[in-house]
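Hi L.,

You mentioned the student needs an example of a multi-chain input paired with its predicted structure. This one should do, with 224 residues in total across all chains.
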Amino acid sequence: DAMVIQNPRYQVTQFGKPVTLSCSQTLNHNVMYWYQQKSSQAPKLLFHYYDKDFNNEADTPDNFQSRRPNTSFCFLDIRSPGLGDAAMYLCATSRDYTILGAFFGQGTRLTVV
Amino acid sequence: TQLLEQSPQFLSIQEGENLTVYCNSSSVFSSLQWYRQEPGEGPVLLVTVVTGGEVKKLKRLTFQFGDARKDSSLHITAAQPGDTGLYLCAGARDSNYQLIWGAGTKLIIKP
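Structure written out for the whole complex:
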């Protein structure tokens, strides 16, 4: 089935140690998003790509970077994770604008020790 | 600021009861979406409503978009323990990638 796949499902990293989360999609959607979600709150958009065009949200810390080497893959890099970065990270896709909805992966639960 | 106010934030009811969750805004949206999220999983899109006054049914779930496209409701009939989860509404506007999210409703259905 076409879907959005995130790896790993669970990631434990040390304080300050760079970590990379990955996302792949078989939906062939133009737009890929990275969200951060904490404790049953609404997801918070970090950035998105429309094809290769990168769009950063104004309040996304510089500590967070992203790469999209091709249509199918997108990566979230956290350069120096702090304790406050522990959260669920969600990748999502949409064909174009979000008017018809977004399709989410299962998420990566990041723990910082 | 486009806000979506979602209520209630928490609801715990017995199996078999009915419930309604509301999302309200002072802004007009091109569409309103409802997602359900289980613990440790990503949100799953349940439905998208795009026309003012539109009503969509998904088994025991009924979704309605307000006539002015500023509000939406989710009604569950005869709730079951499998309905337990976090329900999120999100509004979308044309030519915009940003979804405006409600705060979520944590729903617990007790057997």
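You could point out the following to them. Chain B touches chain A at residues 30-31, 33, 35, 40-45, 48, 50, 86, 88, 90, 92-99, 101-104, 106 (CB under 8 Å). The mean pLDDT of chain B is 94.

Best wishes,
N.
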